[in-house]
Amino acid sequence: MSANPIFIGGFRSGTTLLINLLGMHSNLAPWFETKSLCEALRWMHVIKNPANKNFENNYTTPAEATGFSQEAVRQRMLGHIEHTFARIDGAKPSGKAHHEKYPIGFDCIRYSKETACAALTDWAKTTSVKSDYDTVCHATRHLITTLGEKQCQAFNRPVWINKTPEIVRFSKELRDAMGPCKIIYLVRNGLNVVASARKLGWGNIESLAFNWKTLFEYTRDAMRDDSGNYLELRYEDLISNPQDTLDKVFAFCGQRLDGEGIVKSYRQHFSNNAFNLSRIETTGNLSPEDIIKFNAIAGKLQTELGYTS
């Protein structure tokens, strides 16, 4: 594993495409999605910031294991492990649009479900005895490190790179647990994000606009005092100029530049039209009233980022 763990996040912004491309690099073991880790980090956040408990409770899944007792957190983590492996096995839907096709896949976990559950059991043994911040932090570091090393072993590659959309929101907790981390945030035109997410049934305009805005602002704020380890990318740049965008990521991560070779291979795998420029502007299912609702919540950020509101 490299000196700095690498995490990628973003809200319906092309992170699955990005990690599939990065995972074609010979040194990088792609690792996605690990929503169970988000629940451990969320608990760390609540322990340190108890005033945020109700807010975070709104984002916990599965919903039946509510609250932030050690057992509730463990149950949610187990639920995510089971759901992820069910998606990988085809027993659960991927949650992706029909046009999305990737060389590695929608999820990529190469260790077994039994390995994941054993690592969770070790985490739970430690945190059931004592649940202060430092203990949970240490247990979470061990959990992430153990599973990351298993992923590297499965790929026979030295460096893992984790993509889980929400995980970067907990960058402060990640740094407490793992030390310095490389955080990559992929942002996309908020109107396009909301249009795409609503089409998949992820929520209404207001909730989707809030999630797009909040995930980005939380991540940027968490990395404000560590800007050298933070990289913001645009989905639009990834689609229109994939080679340079990938090489920017490789340079940021201290890896050999291989954007040209990866883009060529990706196009050969799918087609010369693999990077579909038409996806950059896709707000067709939003009405003027929808856009007004979006702007009331996230219009300021949309404008600050240079997107049309």
How does the SSE layout of this entry go?
Elements: E1 6-9, H1 15-22, E2 28-31, H2 35-48, H3 53-57, H4 70-89, H5 113-129, H6 133-155, E3 159-163, H7 171-178, E4 182-187, H8 190-199, H9 205-222, E5 230-234, H10 235-240, H11 242-252, H12 259-269, H13 288-304
Parallel strand pairs: 1-3, 1-4, 2-3, 4-5
Would you mind describing this structure in some detail?
The protein has 13 helices and five strands. It is of the alpha/beta class. It has a single domain, classed as P-loop containing nucleotide triphosphate hydrolases (Rossmann fold). The radius of gyration is 19 Å and the shape is globular.
Concise account of the structure shown:
The chain has 13 helices and five strands. The protein is an alpha/beta fold.
Write out key terms for the chains shown.
309 residues; alpha/beta; Rossmann fold; five-stranded parallel β-sheet; 8% strand
